[in-house]
Amino acid sequence: MATDSRDVTDRVAALVQAGRIAEAAQIHLAAGKSRYQAKQFREAEAHLRSAVGLRSDSAEARFLLARSLAYLDRPEEAEAELTAALTLRPGWQEAHFFLGGSFFARRMYGEAVPHLFRAIALNPGWARAHLALGRTLFRLERYAEADSILNLAVALEPGHAKKVEYLHFTLTAERLAAFLDRPPARDAVGGRPGLTAP
Q1: Residue of 7, 142, 152, 56 lying closest to 48 (CA atoms)
Q2: How many CB atoms lie within 10 A of CB 147?
């Protein structure tokens, strides 16, 4: 691999010296994509950063860089690159989906929703995006909307039924745990500690 990297560096240097910047960026992009597909995310990051450095208008390089950064557990950097990719290519459904997913993973549910809605608007038949949006709406306690979206996810992809069932079970358990952890409420009639609905 070191030889491959040296070869890429030499080829890129020659192209840059000749003023062929777009071709040099394309070599780094191809090398970064190859490393990304091989799950060599640190190496992918280096090549993709070089590609972006040469061609800042490369939405594909920014998207792959974001995905590599996400695997390297650097979500804020990944989100910045996804945002840049969407500035360059606003209708990119996968970029909206992954940006929404990144916000969801960081419990920034309100920020996730518009991107997941946009991913669905761009591809109404994408069951996975419906599932992600439904999960996010559940976290925001927008239960009626969540149920509607999750039912559609199952209609589009019946294999999601178990995931939806598990989601309902998990959230019910979380709500019950939160309810049981609350200090006792005063009974409305006798002023004694009692249980109230969550």
Answers
A1: 56
A2: 15
Tokens found for residue 2: 């070191």
Structure tokens belonging to residue 88? 């360059």
Cross-strand bridge partners of residue 186: 193
With a CB cutoff of 8 Å and minimum separation 6, the contacts of 162 are none
Structural domains in the chain? 1-89 (1.25.40.10), 91-181 (1.25.40.10)
pTM greater than the 0.90 cutoff:
no
pLDDT at 91: 94
Report, as an integer, the average pLDDT of 33-59: 96
H/E stretch holding 186 reads strand 185-186
Q: Which of 112, 75, 78 is CA-nearest to residue 97? A: 112
Mean pLDDT of 81-98: 97
Q: Is 193 helix (H, G, I), strand (E, B) or coil?
A: strand
